[in-house]
Specification:
mainly alpha, 2 domains, 12 helices, about 0% strand, elongated
């Protein structure tokens, strides 16, 4: 199983258990890009006050260009492209994370401070900032902070940073159009119901009224059943 499949399985497992990724307000950023958050597109559900606030946040840059470059590298290391779907940056995740950092200010210090810590660690270990390291070097640095390690207290700031970043990357990706498609999620899909199977009805000594069955269990999706005051089907 590759890195991307592992992440997907972990995500689906957490959803099945009733838990979701922390780190952003999903009711405010649900599966949309920052640009869409400020738009008047039908169905987005933003009030006039919320749209004004979104536009203000979008007009105020937070990360510097070097920070955005580092963030893009990190996002794609966490969730790279595969042969079917693009990477986290292809889905606009760095812009999503910057929007969330402005929307939830308590994330700003951990994110910015975490990238500073990572650059310092990279310089001490490999003599270069994180984005200038080779991919193998970058992965080795991330492997150090991917999981808590009580025996290495000097890594704890990095662990906190990477835990938050990984959560935001997965949230941003799997609430994007590309991420939802990669999960194979189709939403509510109509189907044709033709009643309880005959063998089940026979087991309980029951059967359908043929007139009722003809009216209700059919493929005519444009007709709506009507009932009289006594609850009998009339059409």
């Amino acid at each position: 199983m590759d890195r991307r499949d592992t992440i997907k399985s972990l995500l689906l497992g957490s959803l099945a258990g009733g838990a979701f990724l922390t780190g952003c307000r999903l009711d405010e950023t649900e599966g949309v890009t920052p640009e869409a958050a400020a738009s008047d597109s039908e169905g987005y559900g933003r009030t006039a006050e919320e749209k004004i606030r979104d536009e203000k946040l979008l007009a105020e840059p937070f990360f510097s260009e070097p920070e955005l470059s580092t963030l893009a590298v990190l996002c794609d290391l966490i969730l790279p492209a595969d042969d079917q779907f693009g990477s986290a940056t292809d889905a606009g995740v760095p812009a999503f994370i910057e929007f969330i950092a402005k929307d939830i200010p308590e994330h700003q210090v951990p994110l910015r401070g975490g990238m500073m810590w990572l650059n310092h660690r990279a310089n001490r270990t490999f003599g270069a900032e994180f984005s200038a390291c080779t991919e193998a070097q970058q992965k080795s640095l991330l492997d150090e902070i991917a999981f808590p390690n009580e025996d290495a207290p000097e890594l704890q700031q990095g662990v906190v940073f990477f835990t938050l970043l990984r959560s935001l990357v997965l949230t941003g990706y799997y609430t994007s159009k590309m991420g939802i498609e990669s999960l194979g999620y189709q939403g509510n899909v109509p189907n044709n119901w033709d009643g309880v199977p005959e063998e089940v009805l026979a087991e309980h000594g029951l059967s359908y009224d043929e007139e009722w069955l003809a009216k209700c269990a059919n493929a005519d999706r444009d007709s709506v059943a009507e009932w009289d005051e006594e609850g009998r089907l009339v059409s």
